[in-house]
Sequence to fold (256 residues):
Amino acid sequence: MTLKGKTALVTGSTSGIGLGIAQVLARAGANILLNGFGDPAPALAQIGAHGVKALHHPADLSDVGQIEALFALAEQAFGGVDILVNNAGIQHVAPVEQFPVESWDKIIALNLSAVFHGTRLALPGMRARNWGRIINIASVHGLVGSTGKAAYVAAKHGVVGLTKVVGLETATSNVTCNAICPGWVLTPLVQKQIDDRAAQGGDAVQAQHDLLAEKQPSLAFVTPEHLGELVLFLCSEAGSQVRGAAWNVDGGWLAQ
Ligand code: NAD
Fold:
């Protein structure tokens, strides 16, 4: 399939899952608006190598004004957003009674509220052009809980709920909204959790094995490429009647 002529905004795409999804969409011909922290040059070079138009905007998505500036650039540089991948997210691990209030606020703002703001800003243009795809990178933690992850689990359950509502509100249109719920993917976000385990004793290889063995029966990581290919399917005609779904890609995590 080709996405030539379409524009995809992938939030949090300077690393990890977002960058992997952006690469798959660029390979299919979509122009890409990247977002995220850090030096965007390597990501821009990787996307540009596919011969598509690529730009980066450094908006901090925990700030509504900066989200609006990101969408203003999308409008001005690309004429709007056809595919919105709400991917940016952070994690903090602590028991609920010790959970720092600041971390709670930051996680809810980025992992949940930014998905709402992106959706409300993208939808009018998608409706006007009579085609759109909103794909929210939730998590298995949008469907089940784990200890220590109060804010993350609350935010991701919220994303799955929001996805259902937007899926219903767009049901008779050519706009769809779905969530993807990955299990463990080896990215900087998860590497930090492996490092924290290793710091409590044992080595990094053992910590990685233990992390997988606790939850993910395949004992193998999901990859950003796997998730990118699912995004591509959701953008295709065959995916056009998948609406309001929360699709887990988790090595069997939720089958238990
Ligand atoms: P990552 O840390 O590799 O990448 C996160 C991206 O978000 C980076 O580009 C970072 O710069 C950006 N970012 C962070 N704070 C931001 C902010 N305030 N504004 C804008 N951008 C910001 O993480 P990842 O593992 O690739 O996670 C991506 C998404 O996938 C997250 O929503 C995460 O919850 C979800 N997820 C990850 C896993 C996993 O195992 N890695 C599993 C399930 C779901």
In short: The two ends are 35 Å apart (CA to CA). Helices lie at 16-27, 41-48, 64-78, 101-129, 150-169, 188-199, 204-215, 224-235. Residues 9 and 33 are 5 Å apart (CA to CA). The chain has eight helices and seven strands.
